[in-house]
Write a structure and sequence with these properties.
heterodimer; A: mainly alpha; two-stranded antiparallel ribbon; 11 helices; 58% helix; globular; B: alpha/beta; MoPterin_dinucl-bd_dom (chain B); TAT_signal (chain B)
Chain lengths: 253, 830
Amino acid sequence: MSAVSSANMNNTVTKSTEMKNKEVSKITKKDCAELVAENQARALVYNLLSTLFAKEVTEDFVTQLTSTQGQQLLHVLAFEPTLAPSIKVLSAKLAELNSKEALLTLAADFCGLFLVAGKSSVSPYAGQYITNVDNTGSSTKAPSNTQANDNNKSEQKQTFGELHQLMMAFLQHSEMQIHRDFPEPADHIAVMLAYLAHLSTSASTEVQLSFINNYLMTWLSDFTEQVKCYDPGGFYRAVAELTFEWIKLEVSD
Amino acid sequence: MKRRNFLKAILATSFTIASTASVLTPLSALAKVGAKNRDDWLTTGSHFGAFRMKRKNGVIDQVKPFELDKYPTDMINGIKGLVYNPSRIRYPMVRLDFLLKGHKSDTRQRGDFRFVRVTWDQALTLFKQSLDEIQTNYGPSGLHAGQTGWRATGQLHSCTSHMQRAVGMHGNFVKKIGDYSTGAGQTILPYVLGSTEVYAQGTSWPLILDNANTIILWANDPYKNLQVGWNAETHESFEYLAQLKEKIKQGKIRVISIDPVATKTQNYLGCEKIYVNPQTDVALMLAIAYELYSNNLHDKEFIKAYSLGFDRFVPYLTGAEDGIAKDVLWAEKITGVPSDVIKALAKTMVSGRTQLLMGWCIQRQQHGEQPYWMAAVLATMIGQIGLPGGGISYGHHYSSIGVPSSGAAAPGAFPRNLDEGQTPLFNNEDFKGASSTIPVARWVDAILEPGKVIDANGAKVTYPDIKMMVFSGNNPWSHHQDRNRMKQAFHKLECVVSIDINWTATCRFSDIVLPACTTMERNDIDIYGSYANRGVLAMQKMVEPLYDSLSDYEIFTRFAKILGKEKEYTRGMSEFDWLKKLYNDCKADNDGKFVMPEFEQFWQDGYVHFGDGEPWTRHADFREDPEINPLGTPSGMIEIHSRKIERYQYDDCKGHPIWMEKKERSHGGPGSDKHPIWMQSCHPNKRLHSQMCESQEYRQTYAIQNREPVYLNPEDAKHRGIKNGDVVRVFNDRGQLLAGAVVSNNFPKGVIRIEEGAWYGPVGNDGSVNGGTEIGALCSYGDPNTLTLDIGSSKLAQACSAYTCLVDYEKFTGKLPAVSSFNGPLEIGV
């Protein structure tokens, strides 16, 4: 992650805009331009991942990802050794998406994984994995629902819970809202990734790191494990792994 | 590569994602101001009670009982779980193979295969095309859209009305007659007492409490069953049950509960109890009748003045006809009730005023017509029908029956049928010789054996060749018997459509699944106080429909639009126009009798209260003058013997009530050597049938190891090495299920209870597949209809016989499968 500030880690999102302005003023113009470009790149990746989790892959999206720019993007992403394996699978799977039937099969994979609750599905909602959101904004892992084969997996929690409320508050502070064509709780992974895309170009590193550590790293590994376990086609396994590895890169830098 | 360079390289690819594709948008000007965060308590209602709700940031936060409900049930704690349920149907979905191959799809995949999300427009168009195909190829007998049930409350959005009006605008279809709760009772009683009795207002509780010396609760558990009602329930009956408890304590009223199990009511009232072997109630009633007759204790004058056919019944009773006197010794062997207890009971019944209050359980069994008929005979012999605190009732455990009616007119409902002059798109009434109406519980038979002719209520029913079914707010994969037959039947259906809130098993066995929203996500209107009609309740929308769900009104308005009949469907009125109309029509009907404010005032207040009703005695008018106020029977009298039924010449329902052995019966009856345990699948204590089973946190207040409880007799359980909290496998030749053991003295030897409405969640024998297609698959949660018998009660009612069911059980020692009942569709290994 491109370091901008060394301010304390407990800043809330409320202060983000103010913080950013203050910190940015300290650095040079060149740095600033580079920083903007880097953050745009990060936002792009977050948006790409968000889109993949938000809805089924469309013909247009396949076209876009298999275009020259799309291929170049995947090629570049594969420069990172930890991203390379999932990018390789993703590229291969994309190449197979050349018929309506293949897209429908992938749509069925998506539906079975993310649009229903069940034994072979994976909840896209953070609230199913993490609980006990306290006032300082940190969260802890829920005791169950963590093992891919957990017998209690069908005993999921109510949706639109604390995490949804918290994300709604974050969005409100950032003057963002969920698109009306996406009628999902705010703790949906696609919302969280899109929110990170937004933070990438608008908030301090601390705020971003704090969000990732508290609200993504706490459950993303469980989520990824479950997708790996239940995805029948392999496409979403690659998407989940790519997401997890990307986030890991973000916090490790 | 350095991180910075890596990021730069990403940007250099010039790959972009359109901002319109994002799930986030800048906050709209409207939202910036902040949507008015209503913190007032809105009003709504449900089968479980009327209540008020408060929201926090657009999410339902608190729920409290409606202030006029003094005895709310704790099921209110499950309401939030109905809305924010992980098993909500989030989007319209179509089974993948059906989407690809339509009516030629592999139907054996149902219950076990994959779905894809579609838009509402796609889903409804596909629905319409399927109806086109059925009407074109088979005509109306190919479509059954009449299997309807308990729905959610609300007069405007009532899902049955919407589905049947909309599908009816497309074409005609097969419908049902009767219901799973009272099929035998509501068929036999019109012959005997002239009305269904089960769905009729009964003698008011205050009169019963003032006049009865003895109350007989026969297979009746009002303290459990009055928690839920057909409309918004406000639980006034519980005040009377509290008074009854006090009167028992003071020795002013004797209450005798006749039941195989110790009911919730028995334990609450602290009343007397008589144990009877399951399914043998008719034998006990006959012995009481014999005792009254042989001791000349029956009311001969009443019998003569108000009934018909006693003389035809007596030779059977005494044994003059068949050589078997139905005396106390004869009954003792069958019923397990000691002869002296029967004698004393008979004497008690004719000492002072005796009110018989019958439950519905005993007619949900093979020959279920007989106990209801025989109970009416008994009441006739006692001679107190039409007197306050005397006679017989078949409904005091249901929907506030017995609470004095306000007498006010209730709001009407959105029309279920087409308006006069409207015709369906496929205006074809040719059912090809098949019946257009079939007994409710016989639809699976019809699918399996189309063209078969059966007897039903004096007529011949020819089973239609059903190719498509439409279910709305109806979950037959909970309430119908024998899952194996259902699986076979569903393989024969070309198309199944299900409109519901959650992924019920019925949805998983469907091809097109459409998400309806809950009552909390729409505006509606209802009465409260069920049969007593205490007032009109505003059902105010708490939150917008979740995900892509829609109200029933909206779903079928869109469907009607595809038919080109939107205007016809809605009569050009919006949801709110309809609410106002239903209210204003009700206001007009009550004009001069009950004061109702303008709609706007009503909506703001949340309700209009009609006040207390006047106490009333059932059949008092008939008793006063049977000539002027005859019953609705053929003779106008109570028919102890029915010439009409006798003429049907049924071997399983003759001219008067008789004792008949059952296909399966515990305690020494047929089949008890192999499966010695009788399974009672009564109405649940913490659900309305299958409604609210999905409310997870609330379910955890009664589930055992995530399973439905099975209530066991301590001695039987010990014999099988089972203790409280164990997982038990219950089985017979029809199926098997897992349930959580609750060992309780409330249950006698040879009896278990698993409440109906436990959601079906089959798992395959090898544990790796879902079991949706497997015959005999293990139900992972504990749906008792995995085990029940799918036969008609008799040739008369052809009603559900779920209570004729023998099983055995053992401690489950295998690897415990996860509960799959509350899942969406599962995939088979690909």
